[in-house]
Design goal:
Layout: H1 10-19, H2 29-87, H3 95-108, H4 112-143, H5 146-149, H6 155-187, H7 192-214, H8 219-233, H9 235-243, H10 252-255, H11 259-284, H12 286-293, H13 296-308, H14 310-320, H15 323-333, H16 336-373, H17 381-406, H18 411-435, H19 439-458, H20 462-466
Transmembrane segments: 45-69, 75-102, 123-144, 164-185, 197-213, 219-239, 270-289, 309-327, 348-369, 381-407, 414-432, 438-460
Subcellular location: Cell membrane
InterPro entries: Poly_Biosynth_Transport
Amino acid sequence: MALSDRSFARAPASILRLCFRRLPFGVGASEGRDRERYARAARSVGCNAVSAALGFAVVVLSVSFTLPYLGQERFGIWMTISSLAVMLQVLDLGVANGLVNLVADAKAADDDDAVQTIVTRGVLLLTVIGLAVGGVLICAVMLIDFQRVLKIGSAEVAREAVFSTLTFIALFCVNIPLGGVRKVFFGLQRAWEPHTVAAIGYFCSLPLLYLCARSHAPMPYLVLCTYGVQVASALILLVRLHRERIFSLCRRIWAGPGWRDSTVLMKTGSIFFILQIGMICGSACDPLIVSNVLGVKEVARLAVAQRLFQAIAVTIGMLSVPLWGLYADARSRGEKVFIRNTLKLSMCVTTGTALLMSMTILALSSWLMKVWTGDQLDVPFELRCAVAVSAVVEATGNSFAIFLNGVNELRPQLLTVLVFCLISIPLKIYLLKKFGTVDWAIWATIIASVVADYAVYIGLFRRRILAHVV
């Protein structure tokens, strides 16, 4: 179906647009573009707020509904499988993220043919990658002994874990090209559209999740009614690109010029690929490290603690991610004033918001845990404190990373991620074995993140980064 631009959260956007009227704009020709960029950001934030609220509701209710009947072991397995969505996103080889800047550059040049060529070839390339990844992952699952790796006590539960993982893999491979479709809208500075579609998916997941809990559905059904619905809803975006002739399989896509863009896309994508690998090794693989060192039951505590503070990450993403396309557009036009003012605003707002939310959630965490999980699971206060601090550090780092992505400064991030991984992985294993409590996995991440960011960005690349804003 066709979805018009005006149909996307006009009311929230009009309210938030008022908040941007007093922002510092450029002068002359750039002033109008600055206002339009902030208006687009306001619309994206408004739609993302709705999506984030529904997504957080799914996260909260998924624990309340399923933990009582799944039990700690099966719930920990489901959380481990759910974490694979973050861990395996790297398998798109960074092509989806590479699309953002290429699309933004072509859009800034008002070259509609180039936009169509880049988008179509990018999505098709991601489709091929998705098929290849699916074959490799299915073979890997067949070779892994789940019962031994995850320390599962029952062979029946291990079989359920295998089937759930295969279900996830099928959905994940379909989501690889759809992830590229979502990123296209960021490059077009229309980030509100993926957020709106995500909100539709979350809204549909809520009743399905309730029905699964009422019927004590096996884990594969839980995967389908959460992650599966999100994947299916993204098809709306592909249809929209096709209706606007941004995605088209016409013959000139193959015969026309522009294969250089595909080469640039692969080079840029390879850098994003390495960045994603590093972040996964450094932080997203925590459930696997914890389950291997302390057992899968500790993953349940870690997952619940992280989801308790997940509203912070969702809020920060809501505020900062739409700026990626705006930074890229301003970089293409050489408008440093906009980049500088937006970076200052973004860093102050995201850090302040994360700090306030983290302190509030931590202060209310005992009551929230009692209401949320009852007596089903004990999450130590030390673990909650660690996750609270981690949320603030992560928020600041993510806001700055969006700026670096937008101005196409990827190489400094490569060195930062390398330093981060070299510190965090051995530190996590050492601290978990030495102290035997899951909160040390979080503290290791915090230590590694702070050391890597300050050592690389401030110590080595300070002048290079400042050149984009001065």
